[in-house]
Amino acid sequence: MPNPNDLILIGILLLALVTVESGGYFLTRVVRGHAPANGLQTSFFRAGHAHAAVLLVLSIAILAVISYAALDGFWMQLARTGVPIAAILMPAGFFLSVLGRDPERPNRLIVLLWLGVVSLTAALITAGVGLIAGGVAAL
Asked: Which superkingdom, per the lineage (predicted)?
């Protein structure tokens, strides 16, 4: 059973999916030519939108089971919050790095994408190892 803090975070993440919906509406405007965007922007907007949705849902799935992990302290916090942090950083990197009129390449804010990748990887490894250890301990 998720603890109360995890339940609150799951609720917040579910509400955050509403912002992904509005981003989807924006994306339909882009692909129909109703919002100006070049090829790079269109590709990055699609990637940002997809990563946001997938990472929010993955965050909810992890939070639903992470209380069974053999983790505590820093490691438990990393397992709980690393994917939600990545769900913010990675899409932000995709969207913010191509703002402006007709960019030819991503700007320096692409670093947000790579910070998100680090957060995602660290959280997935930590949660995975912790859940395996928790399962083995429960045998």
From this structure: Bacteria
Alpha-carbon distance values, 42 to 4, 39, 51, 71 (Å): 39, 5, 14, 40
Question: Which residue in 136, 11, 115, 120 sits closest to 63, CA to CA?
Answer: 11
Looking at the whole model, is its pTM more than 0.70?
yes
Are 82 and 119 in contact by the 8 Å Cβ rule? The answer is yes
Tell me which residues of the chain have a pLDDT lower than 70: none
**21 to each of 15, 49, 86, how far by Cα in Å?**
10, 9, 18
DSSP track, 43-78: HHHHHHHHHHHHHHHHHHHHHHHGGGSS--HHHHHH
